[in-house]
Amino acid sequence: MSGMTGPSSIAPPPPEPPQSFLKQSGFGILTEVEPPRRPDIEHVRRQIEVLKPVTDAFLIPDNHLGRATVSSVAVAHEVAYLGGRGIACLNARDRNLLGFRRDLLTAASYGVDHFLFVYGDAPQEGRRTEDLTVRGMINEVRSFGEGPLFQGYSDFRIGTVAKVGRPLAWRTQADFVFVQVTYSFERLLQWRESLDYAGRMYAGVLVLASARMARRINASIPDIQVPETIVDKLDDAEVGVDLACEQIERVRASGAFDGVHLIPVGRYREMAARLKTITTS
């Protein structure tokens, strides 16, 4: 209908999402969920229901590990209907400018307004597009995404990823930053103290499921090196959960970060149970 601006009244609006984690006080737990690789989101729903009592927001990966998954924007919309706050990850790897603008329009129409922009892992299917960078995606949100088409809709809130030891540079334009997982806590704190950044920052915590997983990480991701003293203990299934909980408590006690980006992998039930004791202590 001509002359109408803002959200349409034809379709029922999604439920009002919880307050943004960017406005909350205290230590935040932002939890990553496993994205569905088939047209069925029941597994995501189970994760959300189990983790919702101890999670401030859910990150939904985008074509995780270079394999096709259900749209992160669609899953973030589903999270809202389950009473949670979703953060839709969008990677530069799979998008040209036109496709990215489509995603912004789709997200606004579904009430999805928090994003994490990433470069993207090497694709296992197809080739990488070179049309956009993460910096270019942020700039596009600040121009097209704040233009007249989006008047009457919630402002987009943008995050990106930083590596320990690297300068933030243009990443300071983001509203929040996720820090890559590291197993050198002292180095992490020294790096954080060296930064001049007013946005929210969340330290990465990965639940290591097995020694095999840790060795695969050490072989493929040079920036994340799991110490052998930890790898040797991971045959005990509880060690990875214990270690993640210890890391969360150390990050919180340091006061240097606004919270953690938790990657529970398949241990989301165990982590939900343990987080209930951590967040109430």
Structure report:
- This protein is of the alpha/beta class and 281 residues long.
- It has a single domain (28-280), classed as Alpha-Beta Barrel (TIM Barrel).
- It is 35% helix and 15% strand.
- The chain contains nine helices and eight strands.
- The chain has an eight-stranded parallel barrel with strand order 1-2-3-4-5-6-7-8.
- Strand 1 (28-32), helix 1 (42-51) and strand 2 (57-60) form a beta-alpha-beta unit.
- The longest helix is centred in the last third of the chain and has 18 residues, at 237-254.
- The N and C termini lie far apart (54 Å).
Classify the secondary structure makeup into a structural class.
alpha/beta
- Poorly predicted runs of 5 or more residues: none
Specify the helix fraction band: 25-40%
What is the chain-wise order of helices and strands? EHEHEHEHEEHEHHHEH
Distance between the amino and carboxyl termini: 54 Å
The CATH topology corresponds to TIM Barrel
